[in-house]
Every structure is written in C-alpha cells, then in structure tokens.
Amino acid sequence: MLDDWSIRSRSRVPRKVLGWRVLRSYRAALALVPVAFALVACGRLAFPPVPDGKPTELSRSQTVTTWTDTDGGTLELKPDGTFTADDVCGGFFGIDADEPENEPRSGSGTWRDSDWKGQTSVDMSFKADGVSFGYEALRDGKTLKLWTYVGDPDEGLPLCILTPR
Question: How far apart are CA 76 and CA 110, in angstroms?
C-alpha cells in the first residue's frame, strides 16, 4: 500500500518522462552487450580452460615420483628436492630470445612444494639458467595430475598435464 507522499511524488513526474528513463536504461544495457562479447572473445571475462579434476593437496610421498606428459616427456621429482627433466612440457617464459618459450625442456634443478587453499603447487628452477616454472595438483577420480598453461592462456595452446608413471 502506497502512502500519500509516494502517490503525490509519482504524480508530479509525467508518464512520458518515466517511459524515457526506462527506455534509456534499456539502451545503456544494449550498448554494453557488444562490449561484453568483445571482452569474452579476447578472454578477458572468461576463464581459460582447466583440466578435469579438483584441486588437491599431495603428500610428499605422492609428489616424489616420475611424472610423464602426453608426448612422453618425463619429470622425476626426487626426495632431496632435486629434479631431472627429459623433454617435459611446461610454461617456460623468457628462456632465451633465440629459443621458443613453449618447447619441451630437459635438464636438472631444484623443486619445492607448497600447499595453498587446498592445492599443492610444485615450483621448479632449472640449474643451468635459473628458469623457474610451476605446476598445480589436481585429482580426477583416482588419477593425480600436475598441470600448467603452456604460453599465454588466451592463445589457445594445449595445456601441459603430467600424470604419475
């Protein structure tokens, strides 16, 4: 039920003006639709894809093993905090101006794991050039995964997914 004040205040605004305000708000909303589509197309509003599975925390014994990628690359994480990589995929940014950033790498270095918000991260650093990179842990049913983006997620490159051997 409207009180006397609200009835009087509404009666002072002509119906045409009220209609114009509604029309103007619809126009503003319609003008934003193409902007939203453009941002989604550029990947600015949509999150890049993530592999199947749920974020998980890995125990040290689950992390210390040999991991393989879909192309046969291997990553051996050792209990002493060192690793050996043989053509393993990953997101290696800024390695060398002459070498592509997203090519598989081989070498050795150090690694450490950390848990944050229910998910293990494995951070790595190659000994030869100090290039650092990392993987996130997922569990898909009984399958454990380490994964990372390869290059810029907006470029649509395949993900790097490692599973225990």
Answer: 11
Tell whether the model's pLDDT for residue 93 goes beyond 50.
Answer: yes
Confidence check: pLDDT of 97 > 50: no
- How far apart CA 149 and CA 158 sit, in angstroms, is 8
**DSSP letters for 20-76:** HHHHHHHHHHHHHHHHHHHHHHTTSSSPPP--SSEE-PPPHHHHSSEEE-TTS-EEE
SS3 100: coil
pLDDT one-digit tens code per residue, 117-140: 899 999 999 998 888 889 999 999
Q: What is the pTM of this model?
A: 0.68
Q: Look at residue 152 and tell me whether its pLDDT is greater than 80.
A: no
**How far is residue 61's CA from residue 36's CA, in Å, rounded to a whole number?**
46
C-alpha torsion sign, points 100, 102, 103, 104: positive
- How far is residue 153's CA from residue 158's CA, in Å, rounded to a whole number? 9
Q: How far apart are CA 2 and CA 9, in angstroms?
A: 11
135 and 148 in contact (C-beta within 8 Å)? yes
